[in-house]
Write a structure and sequence with these properties.
By secondary structure, this protein is an all-alpha fold. Helix content is 63%, strand content 0%. The chain has helices at 10-18, 40-54, 61-68, 72-75, 82-93, 107-124, 140-154, 160-191, 195-209, 213-216, 218-226, 243-272. Helix 8 (160-191) runs antiparallel to helix 12 (243-272).
Length: 273
């Protein structure tokens, strides 16, 4: 499920994101209207909680209203609709990401810390991965996280055109790995079958239906034979990770290392020129 941000009223969305104009105040007195206590921030916080707990598919103005003990109509005084609410949610949740890395003394350490922080952020809020990157939200916190990455990359001394491409490369890499980990976490719950059960059943059948597998795919088979399975890796809290998530995290660490090695090579090439 891919969701595109920026589908609401452009002026209203941008005004709310940057708080250039405050939303209409609730009416006072006996006239019908929203009860005191609601605000844009309270609505956004409740919407994030709905998406975190139940996923993007569960997000609606009605669900957010119920979480706040209000009707959906009560929210429209503050937020024009679900499209604008999604923009606000996406930007607000990015405020969790660090904008400074004090004490980091080199670009490689900084980018490593940034990558792990960003991976953890996406796994806390997997619904963010469903918001397409084709059209950014253009909010202050989204720009803040981008500025942080650019600042860390600027420590490489590489020129601006290459830094722009590296910014996209690193962002796509971390986001892609986060999506794989998030899906690995969902797989057992959705299918009712553990990673180990799924692989054991199908690898056994693969030997039956394709007995010439090694001959048909010699390079893949050679790589698998030469790659001894590493011991189980502990998760962030010390627990043993399920098979698919373990594989995804090991891919993340290996891929990040290669990307950073490539940046180092680019720095050396730039120095020789």
């Amino acid at each position: 499920m891919v969701v595109f941000a920026g589908q609401g009223d452009a002026r209203r969305s941008m005004s709310l994101l940057w708080r250039a104009e405050r939303p209409e105040e609730p009416r006072r007195g006996p006239a019908p209207g929203p009860r005191p206590g609601l605000s844009v921030d309270a609505i956004v916080t409740a919407a994030i909680a709905v998406a975190d707990e139940d996923g993007m598919a569960a997000l609606s103005m009605r669900a957010v209203g119920e979480r706040l003990g209000r009707t959906a109509m009560a929210l429209y005084t503050y937020v024009p609709g679900k499209s604008e609410l999604l923009d606000l949610m996406y930007d607000a949740v990015h405020a969790e990401l660090p904008t400074e890395y004090p004490g980091v003394d080199n670009w490689r350490t900084g980018l490593t810390d940034w990558a792990h922080d960003t991976l953890a952020f996406h796994l806390r809020h997997p619904w963010v991965l469903q918001v397409s990157q084709a059209r950014p939200v253009l909010g202050p916190h989204e720009y803040g996280t981008l500025d942080t990455l650019v600042r860390l990359l600027a420590g490489t001394g590489l020129d601006a055109p290459l830094l722009r491409r590296l910014t996209g490369t690193l962002s796509h890499f971390v986001r892609g790995c986060a999506g794989t980990v998030a899906e690995a976490r969902q797989a057992a719950a959705v299918t009712g079958e553990s990673d180990e059960e799924w692989w054991f059943a199908r690898s056994a059948l693969l030997g039956e239906v394709a007995p010439d597998f090694a001959d048909r795919y010699p390079d893949l088979s050679a790589m698998e034979s030469a790659s001894a399975p590493p011991p189980p890796s502990p998760g962030p809290d010390g627990e043993e990770l399920p098979f698919l998530e373990r594989q995804a995290r090991e891919t993340f660490d290996a891929g990040l290392g290669v990307l950073l090695d490539g940046i180092e090579a680019a720095i050396r090439r730039a120095g020789t020129r």
